[in-house]
Design brief:
CATH superfamily: 2-enoyl-CoA Hydratase, Chain A, domain 1
Helix content: 40-55%
Number of strands: 10
Shape: globular
CATH architecture: Alpha-Beta Complex
Radius of gyration: 19 Å
CATH topology: 2-enoyl-CoA Hydratase, Chain A, domain 1
Strand order of the largest sheet: 1-2-3-5-7-10
Order of helices and strands: HEEHEEHEEHEEHHEHEHHHH
């Protein structure tokens, strides 16, 4: 029993150290529930490489800690879950490695056997939407908006947004959303099927935590087995191979004049003048 208590204390100490070491996110545990908050509200929780690395490390802790059974991912500030890639950071010439686990340390994490609930209030755009789609459930407020506007800046939804949205709502409606880059209100997202539930703005986290507790009360073995089957289904769909092909396409895009123009126009807040035809 002493050994068990010591191992629990060591695990809790390691978890606390990992959670306190973050500059761009917050991570807190409430019993068996992990709450992760994207914490760059001054840029609408746009994500850059240091933030991706912090998120990846926290998801590693979540995956390995048997005491944590469900996670809730949300955004600080009340205006956005996340507007995706920090294009201004990129335009300034900043560099940084993306973790192998992908955008938000999550989009390419194909072996996670624990569920994550996205609690979305405000904008979930680009990589922010792709991050939410990587979660198992999405609970959103009525004022939330989703979208994949990458085509407007010379990019495309390469963090498996193309694949996941088309699988979750069907190809035809997904294609229209991806090719226009338009915003999708939460109620339309609920009708299309990628939003599980719409909650009041002042009750979003309460509802997300209630759902997390409901899942946490189920058999951990059963939840893990369910996630394993879902992961296996993604494998059968060649999601990993599709991601590698997306990266190839993105590498080609990054060498085009449209990519440079799209980023420049975004930073300068003007309409792009596309060069490639």
């Amino acid at each position: 029993m002493v050994v068990t208590d010591r191992s629990v204390m060591e695990r809790q100490t390691g978890r606390a150290e990992a959670f306190m070491a973050n500059a761009f996110i917050k991570a807190e545990s409430f019993g068996s529930i992990l709450v992760v908050t994207l914490n760059r509200p001054e840029v609408l929780n746009a994500m850059h490489p240091p933030m991706h690395q912090e998120l990846s490390a926290v998801w590693d802790v979540y995956a390995a800690d048997p005491a944590l059974r469900v996670a809730v991912l949300t955004g600080a500030g009340g205006r956005a879950f996340s507007v995706g890639n920090d294009l201004k950071y990129t335009a300034q010439g900043n560099r940084g490695a993306m973790p192998s686990s992908g955008f938000a340390g999550l989009t390419s994490r194909f072996n996670l056997e624990k569920p994550i609930i996205a609690a979305v209030d405000g904008y979930a755009m680009g990589g922010g939407f792709e991050t939410a789609l990587s979660c198992d459930l999405i609970i959103a407020t009525r004022s939330s908006n989703f979208g994949l506007p990458e085509v407007k800046v010379g990019l495309f939804a390469a963090a498996l947004g193309v694949q996941r949205l088309s699988r979750q709502i069907g190809r035809k409606p997904a294609v229209e959303i991806m090719l226009t880059g338009r915003r999708v209100p939460a109620e339309e997202g609920w009708r299309l099927g990628f939003v599980n539930e719409i909650a009041p703005q002042d009750g979003l986290m309460d509802r997300a935590m209630e759902k997390a507790r409901e899942i946490a009360s189920a058999s951990p073995s059963s939840v893990r087995a369910t996630k394993r089957v879902l992961n296996f289904m993604d494998d059968l769909d060649n999601l990993g191979a599709s991601l590698r092909y997306s990266k190839m396409q993105m590498d080609e895009l990054r060498n085009t004049e449209d990519f440079k123009e799209g980023i420049a126009a975004f930073v300068e807040k003007r309409e792009p003048e596309w060069k490639n035809r």
